[in-house]
Amino acid sequence: MNTGNTGKIVQVIGAVVDAEFADGKLPPLFQALEVDYTLREKPVKLTLEVQQHLGDNWVRTIAMSSTDGLKRGMPVRDTGDKITVPVGEGVLGRVFNVLGEPVDERGPVKFEKRYPIHRKAPPLIDQNVTPQVLETGIKVIDLICPFVKGGKVGAFGGAGVGKTVVIMELINNIAKGHGGYSVFAGVGERTREGNDLYNEMSESGVINQKDLSASKVALVYGQMNEPPGARLRVGLSALAMTEYFRDEKNQDVLLFIDNVFRFSQAGAEVSALLGRTPSAVGYQPTLAQEMGDMQERITSTKKGSITSFQAVYVPADDLTDPAPANTFAHLDSTIVLERSIAELGIYPAVDPLASTSKALAPEIIGQEHYDVARGVQRVLQRYKDLQDIIAILGMDELSPEDKLTVFRARKIQRFLSQPFHVAEVFTGTKGQYVSVKETVRGFKEILEGKYDDVPEGNFYMKGGIDQVRESKG
Q: What does the pLDDT look like over 345-375, one tens digit per residue?
């Protein structure tokens, strides 16, 4: 949309562009402006977003892509709207940039309408406040840190412990178990990671290369090499696509954000470029508000829900750093992926003692599930406490009661592993989806001692407890 309102560039400082408009025609904050020019004989369309009004009819904007070749005096066009992205089922199987332009060279996108990336969170009266558990089919998650529909989950873990594989299995299971769609936002990702994820999703069938409409996921990337404006807004672009499925298709949608820390980091860069005084540890003074504006849109309404799974990088392992600390305040569940568990060959490498969920309460998941989950944690904690004694004195010095605890703990530990559908190509083992009911029954029977005579190897990489029983025979 062209309002016919044009201004001119008066200053370019890296990713920050100042423009002057006629008296009384200043574009409002967050409005998208466009500049058309030629760079090395190629036409360029640059999108800018208004961030500040400076006085003297100047606006200060942040560029969504490189500002190479911009000159003072170039005309700037007011689009009359915020940045908008295409929404609808046509976005599935496609890869987009922050502006909603396809970057996968698969031709134009068929879309029903466009949504602005800045939208208000649903009013409290429309939100669904009764907690409902979202079954994921992954035993360790459903048992220890159950997800809530419309909740926010944070995954904490270093490199190579399996964050991406857990994300892909969740996309796969939610699509199969709930018929839902997913949107993946790569915020400040490395290009290699984005490329690997796309290829892995294609191999496992989450993206259907032959028939894109049969795909279950849309991908939106703002790569690490892009200007901070793009990295700051790419999460909102993905969120707008997700909101369409919730509000107009009444669906339960999954939103994956990898990595939320980079969203805060990009905000700090933009804030410095705009000349704002930094706050604690050099972060932007608006950190809590920016995080809140994004996170509050991720919620359940009476129509559908957006459940988000967010990877969180913790700088220098300092959980008190303002970026992760601000993220924590919004999370309902935290999943901690532990390298020492991955080294044992137990995947998913979720630490059942460090992972938490607000939904792990008898009034939400039921008394039986709660008792089994706490029983499992108690046995594993006791095993952890005894490990020093075992290492120094050996198993023979333990009391019979402690010996039994250790044997059961080792079985539980192995039974928490599970073959994934998306890992079939690597492991050759068929993936398993295990219902919450089956998960609770299995661990309850192990705690009750029904499998005390079964060797612990039988519990490794199994789905439900019945498979252990079959291999026992």
A: 999 999 999 999 999 999 999 999 999 999 9
Model's pTM, two decimal places?
Answer: 0.86
Please identify which of the residues 25, 106, 190, 302 carries the catalytic annotation: 190
Residue of 49, 135, 169, 189 marked catalytic = 189
Cα–Cα distances in angstroms (integers) from residue 221 to residues 68, 112, 189, 211, 237, in the given order: 21, 21, 8, 22, 9
For the chain, the average pLDDT equals: 92
pLDDT of residue 164: 79
Per 3-state DSSP, the chain is made up of helix, strand and coil in percentages (nearest 5) of 40, 25, 35
For range 100-111, the mean pLDDT: 92
119 part of the active site: no
Both tokens of 350, joined, read 């979720």
Compute φ and ψ for 10, nearest 5 degrees.
Answer: -115, -15
CB burial readout 394-417, b (16+ within 10 A) else e: eeeebeeebeebbbbbbbbbbbbb
How far, CA to CA in Å, does 106 sit from each of 96, 98, 182, 228, 402?
A: 11, 17, 20, 27, 61
Active site residue 163: yes
Distance CA 429, CA 43 (A): 51
Q: Is the dihedral of CA 97, 99, 100, 106 positive or negative?
A: negative
pLDDT at 194: 86
CA dist., res. 89 & res. 87, Å (int): 7
* Confidence bin at 45 (pLDDT 50/70/90): very high
Residue in 85, 82, 84, 102 with CA at minimum distance from that of residue 93: 102
The SS3 of residue 82 is: strand
